[in-house]
Amino acid sequence: MNRVLTVRLLGGRISGRVRVRGVLGAGVLLLVAAAVGVASLPSPDAGVSLGETIDALSGRGTRVADLVVLDWRMPRVLAALLFGAMMGLSGAIFQVVTRNPLGSPDVIGFSSGAYTGALVALLVLEVGGAAVPLVATLGGLLTAAVVLGLAGHEGLRGARFVILGIAAAALLSSVNTWLVLRVTAEEGLQASQWGVGTLNEITWGDLRLAAVCGLVLLPGCLLLARPLALHELGDDVAVALGVPMRSRRVLAIAVGVALTAVTTAAAGPISFVALAAPQLARRVVGGSPPALVASAAMGAALLAASDLLAQRVLAPTSLPVGMVTVVLGGCYLAWLLSRRR
Q1: SS3 readout for the chain
Q2: Mean pLDDT of the chain
């Protein structure tokens, strides 16, 4: 299962080594994410069964089934898979760069910075559309710059960076509360519900915008695969192999913050998925550092499963998915700490 195979493409001009366990594990996680997505499509509350869902997907469904499955359920399910994958990628990038299992964007304050940027765009600047992810990304990057500046010579390594990130998250949480309280009651209620992290109001327009941003960021993730694998060996070894780690590290931070900002701007700050997905994926596929594809698949499965629970636990009431991820994340942290003790 731990065998390593050499893969050659285009007549040997492109070659690489892959681990059998990593490929199989990533494939299983992708199948699990797809299965959870399919299981989330039927709507018992609306009287749409699994068979009617399959008919709607194949173009043979009734008008009611098409409305429920294609217009209501499909955007939410695809958003859960897409946003979960993006958060899993972001968590894997930051955990490798910081060399810390707590180096997740929701722990070190980058998600809070992106949420602050999104609130400024919506409540202060009163803009929408593509401007919201842009301002959210600027908020996350500014937070990252401030935390890195305060970390000093230690940079991304050591506990100082994580502690400063936690402090920044607490400070930005107060700023976010102030921004919500200064607007009208209706706007504040809407912002508060969105701030928990929810997929209840996701539309095809929101999904298309997030998908375009994800496609733009995907090449950056592909460029980071080899540098992140070499990061565990240290900067000296990476530079000796011809990889400029300083520029790659800056690119990694920018891509990770952008992935977090896009999901935050669309669905609010959803906690713990970026933290848990790379760790769980690593247990499945093994190896070090966490594999990007496996982390993305695990993140997609986690968020899709959490959203399914959010819809079915108190049906017909649909909970914000962020409430479920907080509960699951707290249980995961308790289990992890008990194991390490």
Answers
A1: CCCEEEEEECCCCEEEEEEHHHHHHHHHHHHHHHHHHHHHCCEHHHCECHHHHHHHHCCCCCHHHHHHHHHHHHHHHHHHHHHHHHHHHHHHHHHHHHCCCCCCCCCCCHHHHHHHHHHHHHHHCCCCCCHHHHHHHHHHHHHHHHHHHHHHHHCCCCHHHHHHHHHHHHHHHHHHHHHHHCCCHHHHHHHHHHHHCCCCCCCHHHHHHHHHHHHHHHHHHHHHHHHHHHHCCCHHHHHHCCCCHHHHHHHHHHHHHHHHHHHHHHHCCCCCHHHHHHHHHHHHHCCCCCCHHHHHHHHHHHHHHHHHHHHHCCCCCCCCHHHHHHHHHHHHHHHHHHHHC
A2: 81
For domain 4-43+73-332, give its CATH number from 3.90.550.10, 3.40.50.150, 1.10.3470.10, 3.30.870.10: 1.10.3470.10
**Is the distance from CB of 253 to CB of 108 less than 8 angstroms?**
no
Predicted local confidence at residue 90, as pLDDT: 92
pLDDT tens-place string over residues 233-285: 666 666 666 666 677 778 888 888 889 988 988 888 898 899 889 988 888 88
Model pTM score: 0.87
Q: Which two tokens stand for residue 249?
A: 């590290």
Q: In this structure, what token pair is assigned to residue 120?
A: 């400024």
The amino acid present at 69, given as its one-letter code, is V
Q: Where are the domains of the chain?
A: 4-43+73-332
Neighbouring residues of 311: CB distance < 8 A, sequence distance ≥ 6: 40, 318, 319
As averages over each run of 10 residues, the pLDDT of the chain (341 residues) reads 54 57 81 91 78 80 80 90 93 85 82 89 82 86 86 67 86 90 80 82 85 85 73 63 70 87 88 89 76 90 92 81 87 76 59
Residue with tokens 């997030």: 210
Give the bridge partners for 17, in sequence order: 6
